[in-house]
Amino acid sequence: ATMISGDINGEHIQMIRNNSHRYLGKYTADGTMTVCQLDDNDSTKYADGTVADLTGSEGDVFMKMPNFYYRSVAESTDVWKIGFYCGDEAPNNMWVKWDGNALIGAYEAYSTDSKVYSRSDVVSSGDISQANFKAYARNRGDGFQIVDWQMHCIMGILYYAQYGHTNCQEKI
Hints:
Elements: H1 11-18, E1 21-29, E2 32-37, E3 60-64, E4 68-76, E5 79-85, E6 96-98, E7 103-105, E8 110-112, E9 115-117, H2 130-138, H3 149-163, H4 168-171
Antiparallel strand pairs: 1-2, 1-3, 3-7, 4-5, 4-6, 8-9
Protein backbone atom coordinates (compact mmCIF):
# COMPACT_ATOMS: atom_id res chain seq x y z
CA ALA A 1 0.00 0.00 0.00
CA THR A 2 2.89 2.38 0.60
CA MET A 3 3.75 2.18 -3.11
CA ILE A 4 0.36 3.59 -4.11
CA SER A 5 -0.45 7.25 -3.82
CA GLY A 6 -2.40 9.91 -5.64
CA ASP A 7 -6.06 10.32 -6.42
CA ILE A 8 -7.37 6.93 -5.24
CA ASN A 9 -10.82 6.27 -6.71
CA GLY A 10 -10.79 9.75 -8.23
CA GLU A 11 -13.19 11.19 -10.80
CA HIS A 12 -11.80 9.42 -13.88
CA ILE A 13 -11.50 6.05 -12.10
CA GLN A 14 -15.12 6.38 -10.96
CA MET A 15 -16.21 7.24 -14.52
CA ILE A 16 -14.42 4.14 -15.85
CA ARG A 17 -15.91 1.96 -13.10
CA ASN A 18 -19.45 3.35 -13.52
CA ASN A 19 -19.30 2.65 -17.26
CA SER A 20 -17.84 -0.86 -16.92
CA HIS A 21 -20.38 -3.68 -17.04
CA ARG A 22 -20.66 -7.45 -17.17
CA TYR A 23 -22.23 -9.05 -20.23
CA LEU A 24 -23.38 -12.46 -21.30
CA GLY A 25 -22.01 -12.97 -24.80
CA LYS A 26 -22.73 -15.66 -27.32
CA TYR A 27 -20.78 -16.22 -30.51
CA THR A 28 -23.51 -16.22 -33.15
CA ALA A 29 -21.38 -16.22 -36.32
CA ASP A 30 -17.70 -16.03 -37.20
CA GLY A 31 -16.57 -12.61 -35.96
CA THR A 32 -20.00 -11.77 -34.48
CA MET A 33 -20.76 -11.73 -30.76
CA THR A 34 -24.28 -11.07 -29.49
CA VAL A 35 -24.14 -9.56 -26.00
CA CYS A 36 -26.66 -8.68 -23.33
CA GLN A 37 -25.79 -6.59 -20.27
CA LEU A 38 -26.06 -8.19 -16.86
CA ASP A 39 -27.33 -6.41 -13.75
CA ASP A 40 -24.51 -4.41 -12.13
CA ASN A 41 -25.59 -5.45 -8.64
CA ASP A 42 -26.49 -9.09 -9.33
CA SER A 43 -24.85 -10.64 -12.37
CA THR A 44 -27.10 -13.72 -12.11
CA LYS A 45 -29.74 -11.50 -13.74
CA TYR A 46 -29.92 -9.49 -16.94
CA ALA A 47 -30.12 -5.70 -16.65
CA ASP A 48 -33.93 -5.96 -16.99
CA GLY A 49 -34.12 -8.24 -13.91
CA THR A 50 -34.79 -11.56 -15.67
CA VAL A 51 -32.68 -14.55 -14.63
CA ALA A 52 -29.52 -15.25 -16.64
CA ASP A 53 -27.83 -18.64 -17.02
CA LEU A 54 -24.11 -18.15 -16.47
CA THR A 55 -23.14 -21.80 -16.96
CA GLY A 56 -22.74 -21.66 -20.74
CA SER A 57 -26.08 -22.37 -22.40
CA GLU A 58 -26.67 -18.65 -22.92
CA GLY A 59 -23.03 -17.76 -23.56
CA ASP A 60 -19.92 -16.68 -21.67
CA VAL A 61 -19.62 -14.02 -18.98
CA PHE A 62 -17.47 -11.03 -19.95
CA MET A 63 -16.52 -7.67 -18.56
CA LYS A 64 -16.45 -4.63 -20.84
CA MET A 65 -14.88 -1.30 -19.95
CA PRO A 66 -15.54 1.99 -21.76
CA ASN A 67 -13.06 3.80 -23.98
CA PHE A 68 -10.53 5.67 -21.85
CA TYR A 69 -6.93 6.82 -21.97
CA TYR A 70 -3.98 5.99 -19.76
CA ARG A 71 -0.33 6.93 -19.48
CA SER A 72 2.69 6.13 -17.38
CA VAL A 73 5.63 8.38 -16.64
CA ALA A 74 8.83 7.25 -14.91
CA GLU A 75 9.32 9.40 -11.80
CA SER A 76 12.52 7.65 -10.70
CA THR A 77 13.97 4.14 -10.63
CA ASP A 78 11.08 1.69 -10.12
CA VAL A 79 8.58 4.52 -9.50
CA TRP A 80 5.94 5.31 -12.11
CA LYS A 81 3.17 7.83 -12.18
CA ILE A 82 0.08 6.30 -13.80
CA GLY A 83 -2.79 8.45 -15.03
CA PHE A 84 -6.27 7.77 -16.38
CA TYR A 85 -8.49 10.02 -18.43
CA CYS A 86 -12.08 9.31 -19.41
CA GLY A 87 -13.15 11.50 -22.33
CA ASP A 88 -13.70 11.59 -26.08
CA GLU A 89 -10.14 12.63 -26.92
CA ALA A 90 -6.79 12.26 -25.20
CA PRO A 91 -5.44 15.42 -23.51
CA ASN A 92 -2.28 15.06 -25.66
CA ASN A 93 -0.28 12.47 -27.60
CA MET A 94 1.31 11.03 -24.42
CA TRP A 95 -1.88 9.06 -23.68
CA VAL A 96 -2.72 5.56 -24.95
CA LYS A 97 -6.30 4.62 -25.79
CA TRP A 98 -7.98 1.59 -24.24
CA ASP A 99 -10.28 -0.06 -26.78
CA GLY A 100 -13.72 -0.13 -25.18
CA ASN A 101 -14.80 -2.89 -27.58
CA ALA A 102 -12.68 -5.50 -25.80
CA LEU A 103 -14.56 -8.19 -23.88
CA ILE A 104 -12.56 -9.82 -21.07
CA GLY A 105 -13.59 -13.16 -19.56
CA ALA A 106 -15.00 -12.59 -16.07
CA TYR A 107 -14.27 -16.09 -14.75
CA GLU A 108 -11.16 -18.21 -14.54
CA ALA A 109 -10.79 -20.02 -17.83
CA TYR A 110 -12.57 -23.30 -18.34
CA SER A 111 -11.76 -25.57 -21.27
CA THR A 112 -13.61 -28.38 -22.95
CA ASP A 113 -13.39 -29.82 -26.46
CA SER A 114 -10.14 -27.86 -27.08
CA LYS A 115 -11.90 -24.50 -26.54
CA VAL A 116 -11.70 -22.06 -23.64
CA TYR A 117 -14.74 -20.45 -21.95
CA SER A 118 -15.69 -17.97 -19.20
CA ARG A 119 -18.48 -19.65 -17.23
CA SER A 120 -19.79 -19.80 -13.69
CA ASP A 121 -19.94 -22.98 -11.60
CA VAL A 122 -17.23 -24.90 -13.46
CA VAL A 123 -13.84 -26.08 -12.27
CA SER A 124 -10.81 -24.32 -13.72
CA SER A 125 -8.91 -26.03 -16.51
CA GLY A 126 -5.74 -26.04 -14.47
CA ASP A 127 -2.66 -27.40 -16.17
CA ILE A 128 -2.76 -26.26 -19.81
CA SER A 129 0.35 -25.10 -21.64
CA GLN A 130 0.41 -21.52 -22.90
CA ALA A 131 0.57 -22.74 -26.51
CA ASN A 132 -2.53 -24.91 -26.03
CA PHE A 133 -4.31 -22.16 -24.13
CA LYS A 134 -3.78 -19.76 -27.05
CA ALA A 135 -4.92 -22.41 -29.50
CA TYR A 136 -8.05 -23.11 -27.42
CA ALA A 137 -8.93 -19.39 -27.50
CA ARG A 138 -8.40 -19.29 -31.29
CA ASN A 139 -10.57 -22.41 -31.65
CA ARG A 140 -13.51 -20.35 -30.39
CA GLY A 141 -13.43 -18.35 -33.63
CA ASP A 142 -12.29 -15.07 -35.11
CA GLY A 143 -11.54 -12.40 -32.50
CA PHE A 144 -10.93 -14.64 -29.46
CA GLN A 145 -7.61 -14.49 -27.65
CA ILE A 146 -6.18 -14.99 -24.18
CA VAL A 147 -5.79 -11.99 -21.88
CA ASP A 148 -2.75 -10.17 -23.23
CA TRP A 149 -0.11 -8.14 -21.39
CA GLN A 150 -1.92 -4.82 -21.91
CA MET A 151 -5.22 -6.20 -20.56
CA HIS A 152 -3.46 -7.76 -17.58
CA CYS A 153 -1.62 -4.53 -16.70
CA ILE A 154 -4.66 -2.28 -17.15
CA MET A 155 -6.85 -4.50 -14.96
CA GLY A 156 -4.20 -4.52 -12.22
CA ILE A 157 -3.55 -0.79 -12.35
CA LEU A 158 -7.27 0.02 -12.37
CA TYR A 159 -7.69 -2.18 -9.28
CA TYR A 160 -4.90 -0.30 -7.50
CA ALA A 161 -6.33 3.06 -8.55
CA GLN A 162 -9.84 2.15 -7.35
CA TYR A 163 -8.99 0.57 -3.98
CA GLY A 164 -5.61 2.09 -3.12
CA HIS A 165 -3.96 -1.23 -2.28
CA THR A 166 -2.82 -4.41 -3.93
CA ASN A 167 -4.56 -6.95 -1.72
CA CYS A 168 -7.34 -8.14 -4.03
CA GLN A 169 -7.60 -11.45 -2.15
CA GLU A 170 -8.74 -9.58 0.97
CA LYS A 171 -11.18 -7.40 -1.00
CA ILE A 172 -12.78 -10.33 -2.82
